[in-house]
Amino acid sequence: MTLMADKKPKHFKCQIDDGIATVSLDRPERKNPLTFDSYAELRDWFRELPYAEDVDVVVFASNGGNFSSGGDVHDIIGPLVKKDMKGLLEFTRMTGDLVKAMINCSKPVIAAIDGVCVGAGAIIAMVADLRIATPESKTAFLFTRVGLAGCDMGACAILPRIIGQGRTAELLYTGRSMSAEEGERWGFFNKLVAATDLEGEAMALARRITAGPNFAHMMTKTMLAQEWSMSIEQAIEAEAQAQAICMQTQDFERAYNAFVVKEKPVFEGN
Question: Which of 21, 25, 175, 35 is nearest to 115 (CA)?
């Protein structure tokens, strides 16, 4: 098993405490843009999470009043203009691999969004399982504003499942910002809280999740991802198998024993 606390990222912040990993981009003076290095390091970090025994939940946090301004204009967009097709495809596949790594990391991911959340930053928020934001947050999938298609990093597949096809089409064609109020009303945000409460609300939710049956949470996240491409019959069978697996865990037995004596179960994730 991997201990993520032993790994010290160079290109993003990471703190692990009581099963909760809090990560954030670390260039607040530039509203936390992504670089080639931070993309790759985040991808590799999330790829290792399924094997991590010291992380049960991830909080992807804001830093300095902003979530992320997306790909850095000077460090990413400038060099991309000079790349050939092979180099461009290597980059776009790498950014897509970050999304796949987050989806397949086996741990619930909570995005805590304040201020600017655009471009690839908006994609990271989109891929999180749960999203808490402040009223000041502004989320934009602004790829068309730099001459690119809106279909970046899975946006055309994932975003319609969250807010619907028509709303997705509007945001991707225009590149306009989605206000916090719109995001909550459309189901993109689970909750809006004051900026002063954002960190506390995200950590409270993370603690609530990590106190639960974490093996079962892993199965839930797995099924949420895999059932996108299943028929209803396939999904029902897959869930039957997943639930039968969870019924073999000690947490399931702990819950039963606690119920019998009218106590709250204490889960241990096995």
Answer: 25
Task: Tell me the pTM.
Answer: 0.96
Cβ–Cβ under 8 Å, residues 45 and 4: yes
Three-class secondary structure of residue 187 per DSSP: coil
CA-derived radius of gyration, the chain: 19
Q: Residue 236 is encoded by which pair of tokens?
A: 């029902």
Lookup: tokens for 270: 């096995």
Sign of CA dihedral 56, 204, 188, 15: negative
List the one residue out of 162, 81, 83, 148 whose CA is nearest residue 120: 148
Q: What is the pLDDT of residue 157?
A: 97
Tell me what pLDDT residue 73 has: 82
The values of phi and psi at residue 105, to 5°, are -80, -10
* pLDDT per 10-residue tile (average), the chain, 270 residues: 87 97 97 96 97 97 97 87 94 97 98 98 98 98 93 96 98 97 98 98 98 96 95 97 96 94 94
Residue type at 93 in one-letter notation:
R
d(CA 40, CA 2): 19
φ, ψ at 129 (rounded to 5°): -75, -35
Residues 6 or more apart in contact with residue 36 via CB below 8 angstroms: 75, 76, 79, 91
Separation CA 159–CA 150 (nearest Å): 11
What pLDDT shows up at residue 178? Answer: 98
Q: Nearest Cα to 203, choosing from 91, 43, 60?
A: 60
Residues 6+ apart with CB under 8 A from 182: 188
